[in-house]
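Listing 4. Sequential folding, example run.
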Amino acid sequence: MDGLSWVMVIVIGGVAGLIASRIMKRNHSLTGNVILGILGAVSMNVVLKSALGLQFGGIVGQFIVAVIGASAIIALFQALRKNRA
């Protein structure tokens, strides 16, 4: 997320969260989509940068990372809920 303003991070995160919820077939509120997208973008950036040494710049790169990260977070929450039931 280097070089992007917080407003752009929120916009990218919101759209990425919306797309990730559609990919994973889960409906969340707009606020939930923004939170999932931002968490996904941040967590996936940390994983890619620290574990693999990769860093994606620009809006398109961050968008792809955010969608993948948000999808991973949705899958994680689904797995945790499934184990509780």
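-- end of first protein; second protein begins --
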Amino acid sequence: MAQTKRKRRTKHRGNAAGAIESRGRTGRKPTPEEQKQSVRAQARERRVSKPPTWNSAALKALMMAVLLFVLTQVGIFGGDTTIQQGVLLAAMAMLIYTPLAYVTDRWVYKKNLLRAKQPKR
């Protein structure tokens, strides 16, 4: 005997331009964990989609220069550096790290723009 209850098929509808739109999610509500992942993904997308600035690059370079200064004073890099030597080394690192951080941020930004323009499969 034939099955009397058929499984409901998802419906698609075409719009005026001829593109087919799917109906969207009609099932269960997302769990709090799924909602949190969605919020995280949106926050990451906003953060990654901002173009790089020299200010953000200088801030990153400053953090790395301070870390380098602390490590030189603790003795991890170089055994016996004075405070003046550590400050000079941190200042030189800041001058090198700032353009390097900007170029790296610009490269990542362009890469993400290209990835966003590609059609999703």
